[in-house]
Specification:
Layout lengths: L1 H19 L44 E5 H7 L4 H4 L6 E2 L16 E2 L2 E2 L4 E3 L2 E2 L11 E8 L3 H4 L6 E7 L7 E9 L3 E13 L4 E14 L2 E17 L5 E14 L5 E2 L41 E18 L2 E19 L8 E2 L14 E2 L5 E23 L2 E21 L6 E2 L2 E2 L9 E3 L5 E23 L3 E21 L13 E21 L5 E12 L23 E14 L4 E18 L6 E21 L2 E16 L17 E10 L4 E10 L2 E2 L11 E2 L2 E11 L4 E8 L7 E4 L5 E4 L4 E9 L1
Parallel strand pairs: 5-8
Antiparallel strand pairs: 1-7, 2-3, 3-4, 5-6, 7-8, 9-10, 9-40, 10-11, 11-12, 12-13, 13-15, 14-39, 15-16, 16-19, 17-18, 18-22, 19-20, 20-24, 21-23, 24-25, 25-26, 26-27, 27-28, 28-29, 29-30, 30-31, 31-32, 32-33, 33-36, 34-35, 36-37, 37-40, 38-39
């Protein structure tokens, strides 16, 4: 086609050139100047979200959406989803877990609520509590506000969508090799080859190999390899087909955190009641432990195998009617064992049996029964069809999106005999030995406890964006999700979970739940200019029992108990967006209110549980992304949140009426500038406000984590046409901070100290 077009256009172009430009002299003349002009893609600013459900440019989309492109990710040296999400304020992995349990994978909080179950890959929910690598990601879309109409059940405050790299009609070969602090070793390759131009066939292969430590921690290891091949047919034609595979293999040493002893706000964990225990006031001023110390065992492990196969079909019937169909099968297996701990009064040993205070160097931390294990398999089979079509009606131009989804999700979890996991000897509090012997040798053995869940969902949705003239746009959407959840399993009874049954009994459980969830959103948008908009939006979301964990429970106060109604959320948002400097710089601002209802609360009189709880988040967000001037890029944002429990008991350890693990203020910025000689310099800062932890009756532990600033820097130089060297320095001022804290406050994850990495970016 290219050859035919060139042959057709060449005579006309030559004739036109002959009329417009005098012929050069036959000899001794000067060759005429030829200029070719084109537009360079903005490395930071995206014009659209990747989901087919968002048909308009971002400047005309009435919702807060942050898009993080791979160019920004590469400048920062980010390698995981949690790393990349630091580019949007108020989003992060702030919660370490409850008691002896530690959250695994991407435990993401957004606008006050856990969004871990609302992570998508190419618009399809991604199951499994694993840490996601972004080696095969083109861009990340963070949709804030209820996303129930977009993806079905989910977090009340938003979702995250990872867009996978696809084959393209251009030969391109690149690789990234990184070495740095914490024994960091990582290499990726991105290879794209055009197989046949005439049929639009191309093949792309992304590869990953990593074997790294953690600059903040001893022993902790992140080791993985992955392969992601994709082949595309009909690229650039009306009918396009792509086949994609992804395999990820992880073999990590997990991190259970370090004791909070010695941190601001820490006091003796002994009961204030002298009848119960003797207070140890000297613990109030105890020395802080070394944040690099590892309190687990070198035998701890986190092994993950994830596979994903995707078939995508797209067809343009006409410029006004387009179809997309996607089928995916995914399977994730996680085998996890961690030696966790609780620094409570019983486990923190500082005195002899006779009551003599030991030297601090001899204090120990007992780890009696807190080896936690997860043996879980998740499977997903889904097919979704989306049709986008334009039409005129009622004096307006419409763009509608209709869709149908069939989703089958399965989760199988096994329990283990606690005694078979082994019992570690006590750890020296200030000098833990990860090679410490076991008092009881570990030999993990499954018991009769298990949980087997199957969720089948059929979803139907319809969106419409109507344009009235050049300045008004009205958008609406509605979605119905009909689901059935079948759960069967066996639980081991305890005195608290099953009061009417003797403790230690294996009790079979079979629970079923089915319902239809209706969610919707509506917005009105006005365009003062062609490159700006102001809007108002109201949207809803729902999360049924067991919707986040795929587990149903008979526990009276569990949100997974099928007797309860779905958690219901409504968000109202007013905002504005502006594309500035010839559409190179995007500015957005919004104010919003989110109300979450049907939270479970205990009545103080009859001690029964009812869905009378309500929570509220009022917030303001501002973002700036794109090119300020030639070669000067920026990505930044600020978020302010006022959170409260409007009905129900206060949920923070400090007794403040706010939501836990939610910073009141947060800020992020990254900017880079390319100098004429090819040197690129960049840097940024992240601010996270004070984090209130939850409450569970723990005594003496810090009630919150202090606010902190972290500053990062980067410099890159184009050594040759094909090789660029990049130096990243993270936490330039070596700020000491708490990255995450657990519910009881016994443990925390230290923030990474000053660290550096050197990267070779190779492109052909």
């Amino acid at each position: 086609m290219s050859t035919v077009l060139a042959a057709m256009l060449l005579p006309a172009a030559a004739a036109h050139a002959a009329d417009a430009i005098p012929a050069p002299p036959v000899s001794g003349g000067v060759m005429q100047e030829v200029r070719v002009e084109g537009s360079k893609e903005n490395d930071f600013k995206a014009d659209r979200a990747t989901s087919a459900k968002y048909t308009e440019l971002l400047v005309n989309t009435p919702q807060t959406i942050t898009v993080i492109k791979k160019e920004l990710i590469e400048q920062q040296g980010a390698v995981t989803l949690a790393d990349a999400l630091r580019n949007t304020p108020g989003v992060g992995a702030f919660f370490l877990g409850e008691n002896g349990s530690t959250n695994t994978g991407d435990a993401i909080y957004m606008r006050g609520f856990d969004a871990s179950s609302s992570i998508y890959v190419d618009g399809i929910r991604d199951m499994g509590s694993i840490s996601r690598d972004i080696f095969n990601v083109e861009q990340i879309d963070i949709v804030k506000g209820p996303a129930g109409t977009d993806g079905g059940r989910g977090s009340p405050t938003g979702s995250v969508n990872l867009s996978s790299k696809q084959a393209m009609m251009q030969d391109a070969y690149s690789g990234i090799v990184t070495a740095g602090s914490g024994k960091q070793q990582r290499a990726t390759a991105d290879l794209n080859k055009v197989i046949d131009y005439n049929s639009g066939t191309a093949f792309r292969l992304n590869l990953l190999a990593q074997d790294s430590g953690n600059p903040a921690r001893d022993v902790v290891k992140n080791k993985r390899w992955a392969v992601a091949p994709t082949i595309g047919f009909g690229i650039g034609s009306p009918t396009r087909v792509s086949l994609s595979l992804l395999h990820v293999d992880q073999d990590n040493v997990p991190d259970g955190g370090v004791p909070t002893i010695g941190l601001p706000g820490y006091t003796s964990p002994d009961s204030a009641n002298p009848v119960v225990a003797k207070r140890r006031p000297y613990l109030n001023d105890a020395q802080r432990v070394d944040p690099r110390g590892f309190y687990g065992s070198t035998s701890d492990y986190d092994k993950v195998k994830a596979d994903m196969a995707t078939v995508r079909l797209e067809h343009d019937f006409s410029p006004a009617v387009k179809l997309q169909n996607m089928t995916r099968y995914g399977k994730t297996q996680q085998d996890y064992l961690l030696s966790a701990f609780r620094g409570n009064a019983a486990n923190l040993v500082t005195e002899t049996k006779a009551g003599v205070v030991l030297p601090a160097s001899e204090w120990t931390l007992a780890r009696p029964d807190l080896r936690t294990i997860k043996d879980q398999e998740n499977q997903l089979l889904t097919n979704q069809t989306t049709v986008t079509f334009d039409f005129d009606g009622a004096g307006m131009k419409h763009t509608a999106v209709a869709g149908l989804e069939f989703i089958n999700e399965k989760q199988l979890t096994y329990g283990y005999d606690a005694a078979s996991l082994g019992k570690l000897a006590p750890a020296n509090l200030y000098h833990p030995d990860p090679n410490a012997p076991f008092e009881t040798a570990p030999a993990p053995k499954r018991n009769a406890v298990y949980g087997d869940t199957t969720v089948n969902t059929q979803a139907l949705y319809l969106f419409d964006t109507a344009k009235l003239g050049e300045q008004w746009m009205f958008s609406g959407g509605i979605r119905a999700d009909h689901y059935t959840t079948n759960y069967s399993g066996t639980v081991l009874t305890t005195a608290t979970s099953n009061p009417g049954t003797p403790a230690g009994v294996f009790l079979p459980v079979k629970l079923d739940l089915g319902d239809t969830l209706w969610t919707g959103k509506f917005s009105a948008l006005y365009k003062p200019t062609a490159n700006s908009s102001v809007y108002a939006t109201v949207a809803t979301s729902k999360q049924p029992p067991g919707g986040g964990t795929l587990v149903l429970s008979t526990t009276a106060n569990s949100v997974s108990n099928p007797k309860f109604d779905p958690q219901s959320t409504t968000t109202k948002e007013i905002g504005g967006k502006w594309d500035l400097l010839k559409q190179k710089l995007a500015l957005a601002a919004a104010i919003y209110r989110t109300d979450v209802r049907n939270e479970i609360e205990q009545d103080p009189t009859d001690l029964l549980y009812y869905q009378t709880g309500k929570k509220r988040v009022d917030g303001v967000e501002i973002s700036l992304t794109g090119e300020i001037a030639r070669n000067w890029l920026i990505s930044g944002g600020y978020a302010h949140m006022k959170t409260s429990v409007t009905s129900g008991k206060v949920m923070t350890a400090s007794n403040e009426n706010v939501l836990s693990y939610t910073p009141k203020d947060s800020f992020t910025v990254w900017t880079s500038y390319t100098l004429p000689m090819g040197l690129k310099i960049g840097g940024g800062a992240n601010y996270v406000g004070k984090l209130q932890r939850g409450t569970d009756g723990a005594v003496g532990t810090p009630a919150y984590a202090d606010a902190y600033w972290v500053v990062n820097a980067m410099a890159a130089y184009q050594v040759t046409r094909n090789i660029e060297l990049q130096l990243n320095i993270n936490n330039v001022f070596d700020k000491d901070y708490i990255q995450a804290i657990n519910k009881s406050g016994y443990r925390y994850t230290p923030g990474a100290p000053r660290s550096g990495s050197l990267t070779a970016n190779i492109r052909f």
